[in-house]
Amino acid sequence: MVRLYPRPDSAELRRFYPPEEPAPAHLAIQNWWMRLLRRCLLGDHARFARRALDEVPGTHPVLDVNCGTGLFLRALNLPQNRLVGLDFSVGMASIAWAHNAVPAACGALSSAPFPAGTFALITMFQVLEHLYDPSVYIQAASQLLCPDGRLIVQVPNASSWQFLLLGEHWSGLDIPRHLLLFREVDLRNLLDFFGFEVIRKKRFSLRDDPALLVKSLAPGVSPDVRRWRRSDENRVAALLKNALFGLFWLFALPIAALESACRGGATLTLEARLKRVPADPS
């Protein structure tokens, strides 16, 4: 595994996450287009999750950890009573409720107010690498899943071509926000310790793999990076940078697809189910 050392404390780390301030009016319009685009790009995440959900009997709900604005849950096209979001940000949870009709709570999975055996599927897209102790979340998931329930986790791939070629310039490192990076064997070992067996994997994300390459080579045009940096830009500059990002993304797409086909994709997604009683971490 790759570990960040020394690790920042939680107060310092909060400075590197985007503020919850409302965007200016012209950026709010662009954000509407960005939400529409992200919902389209989330299609492969949704298809992967729906296939896992089809294998679980009953109508237990789905929990998306770090749900953000709830776009992924909305893309599942499930009844509202089968959707639950969880996020650290009160602002994001509020947006999930107000704009995407996704019931969302604010907090950590390890202390979430849900009874054991509640969920048919728990998803963690780009979550574990942000945690001081990812094992706490995997253990919590093992308790919250119903019998035959599934867990889906996605992380940046520490064995990816992008990391091997770009090294410290790879945006998947995302220092200091990413405290850990996993190879496939690392993630499998973590899941196995808590009683999970991996039954399916995916080495490509339409939303994330091309974007990671663009953010590595041209971070100044990335909407995410600009938001994190709190860039002060007018409408024309924002539109131009968004257009450039879209153009670069199109060039990066075949490269990212080739990496994935050669088992060196920038992200790694695993689906797992419980095979036994999880181990006691003590």
Describe this structure in words.
With 282 residues, this protein is an alpha/beta fold. The chain has a domain at 44-205 and 266-274: Vaccinia Virus protein VP39 (Rossmann fold, 3-Layer(aba) Sandwich), CATH 3.40.50.150. 42% of the residues lie in helices and 18% in strands. The protein has eleven helices and nine strands. The chain has helices at 10-14, 25-41, 43-54, 71-75, 90-100, 134-144, 161-166, 184-193, 209-217, 223-228, 235-261; strands spanning 2-3, 62-65, 83-87, 104-106, 119-125, 145-156, 180-181, 196-202, 267-274. The strands form two sheets. It has a seven-stranded mixed beta sheet with strand order 4-3-2-5-6-9-8, sandwiched between helices. Strands 1-7 form a two-stranded antiparallel sheet. Helix 4 links the parallel strand 2 and strand 3 (83-87). It is globular and about 50 Å long. It starts with a strand and ends in an 8-residue tail after the last strand.
